Amino acid sequence: MRKYRLSEEQRAFSYQEDDTKKSVLLRQIIAISDFNDVIAGTAGGWIDRETVLAQEGNCWIYDQNAIAFGGTVISGNTRITGTSVLWGEVYATDNVWIDNSEISQGAYISDSVTIHDSLVCGQCRIFGHALINQHSMIVAAQGLTPDHQLLLQIYDRARVSASRIVHQAQIYGDAVIRYAFIEHRAEVFDFASIEG
């Protein structure tokens, strides 16, 4: 059963990828049936094609200033709120909540993750009940260490606030990172608490 349609109106969005300025045409999502807390007729965010937002589940792009494009897939019960931007092969599923954040370039986010007021870019995995907030920057980069295949991961009940996590770092367990910079192949886990 279809839960939304795309508007006839189009909107251009310009962005930069690898020093190249690009543009994409987006269309607004409009609910055609009631589901979860969305009422038929409600206008949501903007996407470049229907494959971005699943017709199944309760996933929705709530804010009319939020956009998703470029191979992004939003499914399950994922909620996108605030002026979020998701682009470049991003995958968000299950009970993820992304608010006022930019997620790009291959990030895979699942389970019950919350990302608020932050930036996540590059091929990484964020899952479990992880929380990323307070203008944190998660910047994944492979190939900077001898382990070329290792992905940056943040999972379990890890909390990252007002911090920068880069390269292939691993943050998990009940770790708490606040006002810190974690890089390369560093691992922060169990009940570790790092504050800068």
Automatic annotation (TrEMBL):
Keywords: Transferase. Signal peptide: none annotated. InterPro entries: B_solenoid_ydck_rpt, Trimer_LpxA-like_sf. GO terms for molecular function: transferase activity. It comes from the Bacteria. It holds the Pfam family B_solenoid_ydck. This is Putative transferase. The lineage of its organism: Bacteria, Pseudomonadati, Pseudomonadota, Gammaproteobacteria, Enterobacterales.
